[in-house]
Amino acid sequence: MASHKRWMVSRRALLTGAGIAMGLPYLEQMMPVARGASTASPLRFLAFYCPNGMIADAWKPTGTGTTYTFNRTMEPLAPVKDDLLVIGGVGKQGGCFKGATGHDVGTGGMLTGGYGTVADGKLDPGTVTIDQTIAGVIGKDTKLHSIQTQVFDTHAFSRLHEHISWSGDNTPLANEQDPKALFDRLFAGYAPTNDAAAQAAAAKLKRLEGSVLDFVSADATELKGRLGRSDNLKLDEYLSGVRDLERQLQDQGAPSNVACSPVAPAATKDPQQTVKSMLDVIVLALQCDATRVATFMIENGLGDYVFDFLGVSGGHHSASHHNGDATLKEYCRVIERWEMEQFSYLLQKMKAVKEPDGSSLLDNSLVFMTSDVGDGMGHTAYDLPMIIAGKAQGAVTTGRHVTTISKDMYGFDCSVVPIGNLFISILQTFGVAAGTVGKYSTGPFSLKA
pLDDT of 371-394, one tens digit each? Predict the structure, then answer.
């Protein structure tokens, strides 16, 4: 266990044992001891993707500024309303552009400010998604440069449907679809091949026959002997959370939604629990600083998952092309509200994680939520559903609804701000001096009141 003078615990300290490496939450004894020193907590970025757009009559809030009111779809976000910046009227191009886009280029280009080429499954030449640009700055010292995750995987015609994170215009990053496998990457990824005990421990953990805590208990006990009371309480809470998550993953059985899995899915598989487990592991990864950058896709673009556990018949994408049918539109509203329940679950988990200075993991994060299209029926590329959550250490003024909707010359609502402008500001928040992002950006979008 590495340590510094005055019993200061290194921010990169790990609990280790027999091939297992377990990160720590942020503790008071990781704080600089000098008076006036800045917080030890890092800044994190997370992108949250929902496909097929949103039904506007249930999505759009009433009012703007700090006194706005949620509509039906966003009601589950009430516990974290003060932590949200809801943004209306931002589109792919801005300038009252009212064209359409495909689910492929809307998904692959979600984090680019641009589009892509459907024919060859590539993004615009030279494109790197903003999560990977951010990871190049803040992900250098973490175990995982970034993590990419997904839950429901349905048929897609192009790899542009399947990925929102790209390290280059022709290089999509694969999504982890099994929370167990992601958990294993966090804790059992470095066992040396010439260490039989370490290999055995890693294999045992992969099968989840034992607890990661069994292997790091000696290191944990040694560390606790050097911590103060509040840090001991925080460490106990963290370790209990890890163990609870392990039990949850053990109870779930084989993943039912991993494409081309050679293992038959468990008959009792609960898809809703799979979503929560994946979000739990993502929060754990951010909490213990295994990574500072993550992406999450509920479904791929063109997502046609059948949400039968919500009482919905037929696929999501099919319902989004409702052609005005009241039943299909209601199916979409039900699915979209459920998506916001999952988003709220994630944000509440992040808000509950306290860091040494009294702030929360959510306070020290910027979480970006949007979709591939504005309206699923019309594949619209304007007025995308969009939320930023978390204060990003003061860079974002939350508790507000802002909109850039204006009227065009015919009196129709339209967007006036390209999404690239928002991405300029997000990148600047993470120390990236971006003058333009994508084809259409014109300057930064203010995240402050």
Answer: 999 999 999 999 999 999 999 999
Check whether 2 has a pLDDT greater than 60.
no
Q: How far does CA 38 lie from the centroid of its chain? A: 26
- The helix or strand, by DSSP H or E, that contains position 243, with its residue range, turns out to be helix 229-252
Structure tokens at 218: 């000696």
Q: What is the mean pLDDT of residues 317-326?
A: 97
Joined together, the tokens standing for residue 56 give: 């506007």
pLDDT of 130 strictly over 60: yes
Do the bridges between strand 293-299 and strand 147-152 make them parallel or antiparallel, or are there none, so unpaired?
parallel
Say which residues have a Cβ less than 8 Å from residue 99's Cβ, sequence separation at least 6: 93, 380, 381, 382
Could you please report the per-residue DSSP string of 144-202?
A: SS-EEEEEE----SSGGGT-S-EEETTEEPPPB--HHHHHHHHHSS---TT-HHHHHHH
Contacts of 65 (CB under 8 A, 6+ apart): 400, 401, 402
Tally Cβ neighbours within 10 Å of residue 411: 6
- Cα 147 to Cα 161: distance, rounded to the nearest angstrom: 18
Q: Tell me the pLDDT tens digit for each residue of 246-288.
A: 877 776 654 333 333 333 333 337 899 999 999 999 999 999 8
Question: CA dist 286 to 45, 151, 217, 374, Å?
Answer: 9, 19, 22, 30
Q: Please check whether residue 48 is in contact with residue 258, taking contact to mean a CB–CB distance below 8 angstroms.
A: no
Higher confidence at residue 227 or residue 88? Answer: 88
The predicted model scores a pTM of: 0.87
CB 86 within 8 A of CB 387: yes
Find the largest Cα–Cα distance for the chain. Answer: 73
Cα-to-chain-centroid distance, residue 106: 17
Closest CA to 344 of 369, 361, 320: 369
